[in-house]
Amino acid sequence: MDKVYGGYLCTGCGIGDVLDIEALKSTASSAGMAMQDHPCLCGAEGRALIEKDIAEKGVNTIVVCACSPRVMQNEFNFGENTITVRGNIREQVAWIGGRKESGEVDDFLQELGQDNVRMAVVRAQKTQMPEPYKLGTLNKRILVMGGGIAGLTAAREASKAGYEVTIVEKDAVLGGKANNWRKQFPTSYPYAALEDNSISKMIAAVQSDSRITVLTSSEVARISGAPGEFNVTIKATGTKSDWDAPAKVTVDEQEKIDKGELPDPNAGLQKYTEKNPAGESFGAVVLATGWRPADVSEYEHLGYGKIKNVVTNTEFEKLAKDGRVPGRVAFIQSPGGKEHDKDFPYCNSVTSMVALKQAKYVRDDNADGKAYIIYSHMRTPGNMELFYKGIQQDDGIFLTKGSVTKVEEQGGALVVQAEDTLLGESLSLQVDMVVLAAGMVPTTVDEPTINLAYRQGPAFMDLDLFDGYADSHFICFPYETRRTGVYACGGVRKAETMEETMDDATGAALKAIQCIESVNRGVAVHPRSGDLTYPDFFFQRCTQCKRCTEECPFGALDDDAKGTPLPNPTRCRRCGTCMGACPERIINFADYSIDMIGSMVKSIEVPSDDEEKLRIIVFVCENDAYPALDMSGMHRNSLNKLARFIPVRCLGSMNMVWIKDAMSSGMDGALLLGCKWGDDYQCHFVKGSEIANKRMENIGETLGTLGLEPERCAVRQVAISDYDKVPAMIEDFVQEIIAMGPNPFKGF
Ligand code: SF4
Ligand code: SF4
Fold first, then answer.
1. Ligand 1 centroid vs 537 CA: distance in angstroms?
2. Which fold has domain 592-748?
3. Does residue 269's CB lie within 6 angstroms of at least one atom of ligand 2?
C-alpha cells in the first residue's frame, strides 16, 4: 500500500500542561511527519479530525501521540485498511513528572517526550500492512481425546455451539473413572447432600447427539498438521501402528537381528511419512485424557499392597458403589511418618473433599458407622467449606490433624497409630479398612499422550515446570497448552471434582472453537488474539542453524527435507522468539521487525556533550512490564527521565543486535524488563524471558571483549502487580550506570 501519513498529538489529560507541544510537533516534522494537535483526540471531535483526513486526504497510516496504546483502543481504531501507531506520551511521560518549580518545562521530561514522538514516527514508517494467513481448506471438526466427564462435556458443549465432534476413547465404554463413582458433591445450597452421579445421563446425551461421533477402544496414534488442518491417525487401543515410535534396539541386538538370531521388534513398521491413509482432519483438539491415581506403595509404614484392607480412595469409591462399605474406616490424607506435614504426591483439595464424601458413605451405610479422617491439610475451597462444616457436625465422623506412624494388622482388624494430633495426644484406632488419599497424576506425566508429528517431538515441552500439567500459562491462559490448537481440561490440566471438570471442559471447548474461528479469520489466538501478523522468513539467507526451530516455545516450526525451517503459521502464537533467535536477522513481522526496533533505537537522541544526560534503553515486555509501567504512571509515580522505553512482544523476541545498535549509538545502558522465569514462571510465551536472559549473558561477554562493562546490560523480572516497584527498579539500574560513567564510545 502507498502510505499517506497523518500525525496527531493530544494535549489533553495534562499532556499540554507539562510539555512544550510546539517543540514536539517540530520534532515530528524533523522526523518526516507533520503533526496536528488537539485538546481531546479520543473525543468525538478529535476522532472526526482524523476521520476527515482519512476521507479527504487518503490518510492510511496514522500516528497518535497521546495515551498508552493499552487504552482507548476502540477510539483509535480506524478500520482494517489503516495502520495506527500509538506513541505513549501520557502514562510514560506527562504523568511521571511535571514542570520545574519555576514553571518552565522540565527539559529532561521534554526530551523524553520528543524521543517518544520520534520513535512513534519511525515505527509508523517501518510498519507494513499485515495480510492475514488463510488456510486453503479449513476443517472445523473438533477432536476430543478422552471420553470421561471432561471429554463428554467438551463434546456436548462444542456440539451445542454447532460444531462436529469426534470423541476418541481408549476404553470399550464411555464415562472413564466416573463410571465407578457412587455420588457427586453437592452443587447447591446448603451444600450438604451428596448428589446422584450424572455420568450415565451425560453418556446418553452424547450417544444421541447426531453431531458427535464416538470411537471407543481407540487411541490417537499421531497428529500432524496445524490448527485448522490437523491430520489425525486413530488406531485400535493396544495395537501398534506405523506411526508409533520404533522400539529402541542396541547395536549388538541389531547385529543379531540382522543375522536372524533375534526377532525384529520393528518388523513391518514403515517410516513416518506424510501419507496418512487412515487420517481424519480436525480444526482443533480438546485433550481430556484425565489422570491416574498416584502410586502410594512407597510408604511402607502404611501397608498399601501388603495389607489387604489398605486401599486407595479410588478403590474405595468403587467398593462404595458396589455397596461394600465397612463400618469402621480410617481415611489417611498424608503419609505421616518421616514425611511429617507433607501431602501425598498430587494431593489437593479434591482428595480432601473425597475423604469427606467417602466418610459420609460410611455413615450412610452403617447404623453405627465410624469414619476417622487424619490429615495434615484439609482443603475445601469455596462453597465446599459448608459441606466440610456439615461433616464436622456428624458425631460419627472424627476429623483430626495428625501424622500416621504405622498401620498394621491385629487379629483381623487394622490398627492405625498416629501422633502429633490436634489434641496433642497419640492415637490408636482400630478399624476395618484404611483408605489412602492417592493423588491425581495427570496422564501427561511421563507419556507423550498427544503423539504429535512435530519437529520438537510428540509431547508437550517442559512439563516438569508444572508437575506435568499441560497448561502453557496457569494464571492468564487456562486450557491453552504449549501446542496451539490443543486445549486441555479436566484432570490432565489440574485436579478437579466432577463439577469443576464440567466447567473446565466447557472452557476448553470454547477455546477450541475460538482457535478454529481465529484460524478462519487468519488471526492469532491468545495471547495476541486478533493479531494479523505472523513471522515472515527471508529463506535465501537462512543458514539452517535451527535456532528458530529449537527455541519456538510452541513447536510452530518443522524442518523441510533440506533442513530449512518449515513454518506452520496457524500453530504460531506470534511471540517473536524466532525473530530474537535468528542470528541472520531474517525473521520479521509486518508490524514488528529487526529493522523497525533497531531504527527506533537509533532515532533516540543521545546527547554527546552532556554527562548529566546519560541514556538508558529499556526494552519492555508488553505482557506484564509495560502495563506495570503504565499503571505506575497512572499512580503518578515519578520515573527516571533518562530511560527510554520500547515495548517488545516478549523478551524472547529480543534480538541482541538491538543492544549492539543501542551501545553503538552511544547509549549508556540497556535494561530488559520481562516476566518471571523458572519454576513459577509468568512468561506469557512460556520461556521467552528465560531465553532472553541467556542471550543477555552472551551479550555481556561480547561487551566485555569490546572493553565495555557487561553490567551495562541487565534483565529484571517484573510482575503486572509490581507497578509500585518498577520505578525503583529502573532508578537503581540508572544509578548503577551513572556510577559506571558514560559509554566510552560516546562522542564526548
Ligand atoms: S513467532 Fe513465536 S510461536 Fe511463532 S514461530 Fe516464532 S517463536 Fe514460534
Ligand atoms: S534462526 Fe534464522 S538462520 Fe537459523 S534456521 Fe532459523 S531462519 Fe535460518
1. 11
2. Rossmann fold (3.40.50)
3. no
Distance 563 CA to ligand 2 centre (A): 10
Q: Cα(469)–Cα(488) distance, rounded to whole angstroms?
A: 9
Phi first, then psi: what are they for 464, rounded to 5°? -60, -20
| pLDDT for res 241 | 67
Structural domain 1-129, CATH architecture: 3-Layer(aba) Sandwich (3.40)
- What's the CATH number for 536-588? 3.30.70.20
**Best substitution site from 536, 541, 543 to test ligand 2's pocket, by max atoms within 8 Å of Cβ?**
543
From the CA of 569, how far away is ligand 1's center (Å)? 8
Nearest to 142 by CA among 540, 603, 505: 505
CATH T-level assignment (fold) for domain 301-440: FAD/NAD(P)-binding domain (3.50.50)
Ligand 1 contacts CB of residue 556 (under 6 A):
yes
By most ligand atoms within 8 Å of CB, the mutation choice from 574, 591, 650, 651 for ligand 1 is 574
Separation of CA 505 and ligand 1 centre (Å)? 27
Measured from the CA of 564, which atom of ligand 2 is nearest?
Answer: 5
pLDDT of 42:
97
User: Quick one: pLDDT at residue 748?
Assistant: 53
Fold agreement (142-290+443-521, 536-588): no
pLDDT at 269: 45
- Amino acid identity of residue 182, one-letter, is R
Return the closest-CA partner of residue 505 out of 236, 222, 202: 202
455, 536, 540, 545, best to mutate for ligand 2 pocket (most atoms within 8 Å of CB)? 545
CATH number of 142-290+443-521: 3.50.50.60
Pocket lining: 582 vs ligand 2, CB cutoff 6 Å: yes
Instruction: Give pLDDT, residue 489.
Output: 96
| C-alpha 551 – ligand 2 centre gap (Å) | 11
Cell representation of residue 656? 541482541
pTM of structure: 0.91
Domain boundaries, the chain: 1-129, 142-290+443-521, 301-440, 536-588, 592-748
Query: Distance of CA 454 to CAs 223, 317, 443, 539, Å?
Result: 8, 39, 20, 20
* CA distance linking residue 29 with residue 5, whole number of Å: 12
User: Rounded to the nearest whole angstrom, what is the distance from the C-alpha of residue 572 to the centroid of ligand 1?
Assistant: 5
pLDDT tens digits along 437-476: 999 999 988 776 788 989 988 888 766 666 788 877 777 8
- For the chain, residues with pLDDT lower than 50 are 268-277
The rounded distance, in Å, linking the Cα atoms of 151 and 218 is: 14
